Amino acid sequence: MPENNEKDEKKLGIVEIESLKDLVHLIVRLPFQIVNHMELSGKHLYFILLGSGVPGVSTTLYYILLDEKIKETYIVFNSIKDTITYSSSFEDRRGGTVYIPIINIKKQNLVKEDLLNF
Predict the structure, then answer these.
(1) For residue 53, what are the CA distances in angstroms to 13, 15, 27, 34?
(2) What are the residues whose beta carbons fall under 8 Å from the beta carbon of 103, sequence distance 6 or more?
(3) Is the whole-model pTM more than 0.70?
(4) How far apart are CA 77 and CA 60, in angstroms?
C-alpha cells in the first residue's frame, strides 16, 4: 500500500456571507438556532459551524465580519416582514418572530486571525 505523506486532516471550509440578514436566513432554517460571536483583528466575527457534505471538508464556517459589536443578546428575525432587530431580553414570541441568541466566545482554537485571509 503506498504511503501518504499528507496528514489525514479534515479541513475547515470557509464561507463569507454577504450580510447579517443572509446569515440569519441560514440560521432560521436550522434546528439549533444560535450565532457565535468573537472579536478578531479589531472586528466582530459572527458565525455558525455546520457539518459539510463536501469531500475532504468536515465542517464549514459561515461568517460575517462587522465593524461594530451587536450590544444586545438576541438577534430578532421577523420572517413575515423579513426584518432584523435586536433585543436584550427574550420577549413573547409572536407569530413569525424568531429570537436568535448571540453566544459570546471567550476562548477558542478554531478560528485564527489569518484563517479568514483567503
Answers:
(1) 11, 14, 17, 21
(2) 34, 35, 36, 37
(3) yes
(4) 23
